Amino acid sequence: MIGTKRSPTQARGRMRRRILLDAARALLETHDLDQLSLGNVAEHAGVPKGSAYHFFASIYELYADLSRLIAEELRDGQLDPIEGPVTNWHMVLGVAIDRGAAFFNANTAARQLILGPKSPPEIKRSDREADYEIARSIEAQIGSHFVLPDIPERTVLFFRAVEIADLMFCLSVLDHGLITPQMLEESKKAALAYLSLYIPSFLTPAPAASDPLTALADAAKAR
C-alpha cells in the first residue's frame, strides 16, 4: 500500500501559519492586544500581508488560534509526573496551581490572551472549554496517586476549581501584571476550599502509582 504524501504546498502552508502564530506571540511580549494588526504580525514574520489574510481573516482569528495553542501547552504541562513523595491530594492540587502560575508568569502572550482584561469575549469563552481539559488533567494527576471518590459530575467540580483559581490569577494580572506570590496562595486556598466540600481530606493511595497520561486515557474510556 502506498502511503499518502503531504503536498509541499500544504507543508509550506502549515509552516507559514505557525510562523505567524510565533510572530504574534513574540510581539505580545512588548505590545498590548489592541495595539497589533494582522499586518504588524505579517511584517514581523516576514510573510506577505496578503498571504497572512489567506490564513486568518483578522488579528482576532489569529489570537483565537494562538490561545488554543497556549491552552494545549498549559494542559500538557499539567500531565508531567510529580517528583518526590506525594502524601495527599492537596499537594497535587497545589503543584497544579503552581505550574499554572509559573506558565503564565513566563508567557506574556498567555497572560494577555487568557487572563488579561483586553482579551475578546470569544477567546474567554474558548478558554472555558480549554479549562475542562485542564480540569481533566488535574483530576487524572490526582487519580494517578489516590483513589478518588466516585461522585456525580466529578470533572465539573475540578473545572469549577480551575475557574476559581483562574479568577484569582485574573485579579492579580489586572492589578499587578503578574501572578504575585500572595495571589498564588489565595488561588490555592480558594480552589482547595471548594474541592474540599466534596473530596475527603484523606484518600486511599492508588494500588500502584500510574502515569497521569494513563489515568487520563482510562478516565476518557470510562466517560
Report on this structure.
The protein has 223 residues and is mainly α. It folds into two domains: 1-57, Arc Repressor Mutant, subunit A; 60-222. It is built from ten helices and no strands. The chain has helices at residues 8-27, 38-45, 49-55, 59-78, 89-105, 108-115, 121-143, 154-176, 181-195, 212-222. The longest helix has 23 residues, at 121-143. It is elongated and about 60 Å long. The protein starts with 7 loop residues before the first helix and ends with a helix. The model is unreliable at 1-6 (pLDDT under 50).
Short description:
The protein is 68% helix and 0% strand. The protein is built from 10 helices and no strands.
Derived structural class: mainly alpha
What is the overall number of helices? 10
Largest sheet: none
* SSE string, helices as H and strands as E: HHHHHHHHHH
Rg calculated over all Cα atoms? 20 Å
Note the beta-strand portion: under 5%
Instruction: Let me know the number of strands.
Output: 0
Q: Percent range for helical residues?
A: 55-70%
- Oligomer state of the chains in this structure: single chain
Count the domains: 2
Q: How would you state the average pLDDT, rounded?
A: 89
Shape: elongated
Q: Whole-Å distance between the termini? A: 36 Å
Low-confidence spans: 1-6
